[in-house]
Sequence to fold (468 residues):
Amino acid sequence: MSRQVDQSGNDVFSSFEGKVVLVLGAGATGASIVRWLTLNGATVVLADSRENLPGFGLLQKEFPEITVRPGPFSDKLFTGVDLVVSSPGVPLAALPLERLKNQEIPVVGDIEIFLRENINRFRAKVIAITGTNGKSTVTRMVEKILQSCGLDAVAVGNIGVPVLDVLTQILKGDRAPPDVFVIEISSFQIDTTYSFEFDAMAVLNISEDHLDRYPSFDAYAASKCRIYSGRGVRIVNRDDPMVYGAIPMLDSVVSFGLSRPNGHGEWGVDQVEGDLWLMCGEQKVCRSAELKVSGSHNVSNALAALALSSTVLVRREGLATGLLSYEGLNHRMQWVADVGGVRFYNDSKATNVGATLAAISGLSTPCVLILGGESKQQNFALLIEAVRENIRAVVLMGKDAPLIKHALRDAGAQIYDAPSMIDAVRLSAEMAKCGDVVLLSPGCASFDMFESYAHRGDMFVDAVRSLS
Fold:
């Protein structure tokens, strides 16, 4: 928190009319911020550290009235502005935070602007979901559950739909305000948020990630747990000591976990007549076998989604129906094809070690694992035991393949290098035996070789289909 700048009393938030606002980052979130600010009368300067902005022509066409400044951030860039709004992809360490603090210029993100606008103008319910892994899955589960219960719920935020774009649609009359915003919020977005006016919030889990952006694992964990600063219902994972120990167990705390629920408001699992049931206290909700997504981590995700959804519902009759209609995300343990008796799964959304560990720990058959990319300074030795137990061979690709190979040197699996995705898939197919699984679960960011984790997953799918 010492690197953050916020003056909550600054009157710039009461009206953007005539204010000069510097927006940092020209990606999808940055564009959504520009749309909202220009619609509300601000004078906008859009800056991006990249010299050559992708889609620069489209930006200029959509926003001809704004000033666009590509290239490294200079001190002059921050002169004469009333507010700085930073996209999550921009490291706070790149900003002159002490100078901005001394000049009482707030630095916020799109979530902070949304929360203030929602309080003052829209008054929708807000559910916030963060964690190292499972955020998108739980966000979509909550959206499905609430929609099945008759509410207009919309999933926004880090999941790919900027929340300010939805506010822009509302203000333009293109849609009505939803009953509930279900926000997937990253640690980078939390770092530029201060209001935390949520009706319910959850940290699903915490494991190593983004150590290239935080000075330590503890700093990363502390960032995640700031989400509990608000006054809404705090949903906590009692199976994760980093989360469970983050806040005192007050009346506004509800827990979930893969154990029998003890209290009336706890969520968990229990064996009933030979079936494993998802439960709220003594109340059965659905059998785990009925879920369309597999693995104990998805049972945990489902319990979190049920706990979050129930906080804004008067009646719980539609909980199971909505949950059981959820079929999973693309690029998250997504079945691709069976080729020569080998099953291929795309888990490209596994961009950290914890996600890869969850994926391979849930396997019941031998696996050839494709790993690699930008490691973000994570500890891949955490995979050694799971690799030793479940993995026939590891195929490495990407910038940090040598670091990962060194970390896994004692894992007991054969390790191979591949220069491209198609080479990785072909080599994996050669290593796999009939009945095996080939799993792309990279544990790394994708930007060394691909545009995004989705692009990486699509390339994997194309390579697998070329085999058959």
Q: What stands out?
A: The domain at 18-108 is CATH 3.40.50.720 (Rossmann fold). Residues 296-310 form the longest helix (15 residues). The first strand starts at residue 20 and ends at 24. The chain has three domains: 18-108, 112-324, 334-467.
